[in-house]
Design goal:
369 residues, alpha/beta, D-Maltodextrin-Binding Protein, domain 2, ten-stranded mixed β-sheet, binds fe (ii) ion
Length: 369
Amino acid sequence: MNQFHFHCGKNPAVASFERCSAVFRGQLSRVLAGQPFLIAVLVLSITQVLVSPLEAAERLVVYSGRAERLIKPVLDAFQAKTGVQVDLLSSGTTELVNRLQAEGDRTPADLFLTNDAGSLERARELGLLLPLKMEEVERTIPAPFRALDNSWVGLSERFWIAVYNTALVKPTDVKSILDLGDPRWKGKIAIPNAGSEYLQAGVSVIKAIYGDDRTERLLHGLKVNAGAQVYGKSSQIVEAVAKGQVAMGLVNHYYIYRHLATQPGAPIAALMLDQHDGGMGAIVNVAGAGIIKSSRHLDTAKRLVEFLISQEGQKLFADLNKEYPLHPHVTADPTLPDRRSFRAVTMPLVRLGELREPTMALIEHTGLR
Ligand SMILES: [Fe+2]
């Protein structure tokens, strides 16, 4: 069986049962030439295996909005442990949700994995995901980080925070994310463009906690303060801060630690915002996964979810992107600030789904581009 899996189905879009079994039969006939009895026995058992549900249960297709290099090693570890072959299709999160919707019940996907709870919640709303009854999930992953019916499950925390240039800013200069809209930072802030899922999720959280008026004021302020310093990639924001082009920027925390890993002398540091009394805490989102409703490999897909929330899976998954594991007994990469040293927003992440549309309208209204 291993040989069969090894040779087939690298690309889920073109892999087919027929093609794979033809390849396998070709390999077999070369190996078995001149051994009629063995051939008869093997052909019989192969035929059984090929048509039995067992065969279907040993392969999975994962649609991933997370970059391949950040997920492949985890899936490889799962494959090494279980023998289950995992085919990975990586693309943009929105593209994958659209694709799943278009493919409907015919989708080859068994699992959807991505970096934003709002997108996972949208997939749930579209009826693409299967509600899960899994004790391990409920025991391991705190309720604010999964869907109400567990149709998606958070795997790691990511924080949308400030990166600042240590020569230009004192960490005591800024307390709340709302301060970044203040006129004193005119021309000194870098922000992501309006298409950024990080910006959208961040604005949703700010809006839910601090209200529409303060959020609108912040966005107007950010627009003025950023001027032309609006970027498509978070790594560009960190670079602009490191070069001193701007004093501060808004990014997910791991971009800062990734930059520092390759350039330890860079004059940048992370600033956890809204930690003061009455502050909401740092803006949090999760990377997470859900099983596709029409998956025909349900038991195997559940085994992958189990692996992703296990101590081994959690360590691998979180460390690859310098995120914080959600498993209470797994520690984060030691170069990150201790998770107990700062507070995060406590809003249940399912709310990112319902907040999405009004947030987009507000972003558009303020003219952020
Ligand atoms: Fe990212």
